[in-house]
Amino acid sequence: MSKTMPAHDHQITDFQQHQRAFTQWIRHPNTAPIPDQIESRRMQTYRDLIFNNVSSFIEHTYPITQAMLPSETWAMLIDNFFKYGQCDSPYYYDISLHFREFLNQEPQEEFKNKGVEDTEYKKTSNLIQQTHHCYPWLKELLQYEWMALYVDMTETLWLDDTFGSKPVPEPTLLKFKMLNKDIPITLKTTCWVLAYQYPVHTWSQDNAPARPEIAPTCLLIFRNQDFQMRVFSLHPLWAYLIELIQTKTACTIHHLIQQLSIATQYTEKASRTEVKALIKWLLSINLFHIQADSLI
To answer: Taxonomically, which superkingdom (predicted)?
Structure first.
């Protein structure tokens, strides 16, 4: 038994070395030696297949980013990600996340201890820094476009309104009760409140501004019952209140009014008016979870 172990270990080491040589050539075909006993034609075919798969996942997730960047810059970013990016997840859909992280990380943090030659490190580092300098909206647009994939893949529940055996209240009466009782506030599903310096939600492949201007924006994002991502622009105060609703256990109307008064120095009357306006709006987009017990 002991006599066969060294040979077995040696075989594993040989395989690992061959595998490393294989992946190194896939990433760096112009500098890495081609693995032994493999035709260059076959290696190139395999590399093209992997590169095209990686590119397609990225382009599918970030079509607006691709449209707004010069084609040469976009191609160089994907090429550098393919060479030096690290994908730790086994899921294909995470390739897009790793691409975003690759572009957003500090170059020194991303490439140190990766075995990247100094000259190549400088080229890649300079490319990423220069791209962010020329296109300061890039980080926010990447994050916003990635949210579409994230919201689609995330498991979320949708709570139906619960009236039990009781009749559904007439809408006007329902709204009156909702706005005049200190009831617990619950949303029907998980929401994301995001803040951007640029109005990225207004951009598209066909409507990409030549010179994007700063316009601070708060957004509410969630997936509706039809599994479609909904995006709404929010006033910053409403963004703050919705964050409170989602983060505080058993959040009530009274608590929202109290916290809004503290944060803004509004009078209690002004805060109550603002909170009621928010609740009316949440009811209008079917995001407010109504429970019969809370209306008794």
So the answer is: Bacteria
Say yes or no to pLDDT of 271 above 70.
Answer: yes
How far apart are the C-alpha atoms of 132 and 124, rounded to whole Å? 13
C-alpha closest to that of 66 among 9, 131, 1, 111: 131
Contact 282, 275 (CB under 8 A): no
Q: Does residue 26 lie within any of the structural domains? A: no
Instruction: Residue 58: give the domain boundaries.
Output: 39-152
CB count, 10 Å around CB of 232? 15
- Token pair 């310096």 is found at 197
Kindly report the pTM of this predicted structure. 0.83
Q: Point out the domain boundary residue: 121, 152, 183.
A: 152
Do both 127 and 146 map to the same domain? yes
CB 131 within 8 A of CB 104: no
CB neighbour list of residue 239: distance below 8 Å, 6 or more residues apart: 193, 195, 218, 220
Alpha-carbon distance of 173 to 286, in angstroms, equals 16
> From CA 134, how far away is CA 36, in angstroms rounded?
43
Question: What secondary structure does DSSP assign to 145-168, as a single string?
Answer: HHHHHHHHHS----PPPB-TTSPP
Dump pLDDT digits (tens) for 229-257.
Answer: 999 999 999 999 999 999 987 788 889 99
Bridge partner list, 195: 218
Task: Tell me the CA distances in angstroms from 243 to 27, 56, 239, 246, one per residue in order.
Answer: 43, 35, 6, 5
For residue 6, being part of any structural domain is answered with no
160 shares a domain with 130? no
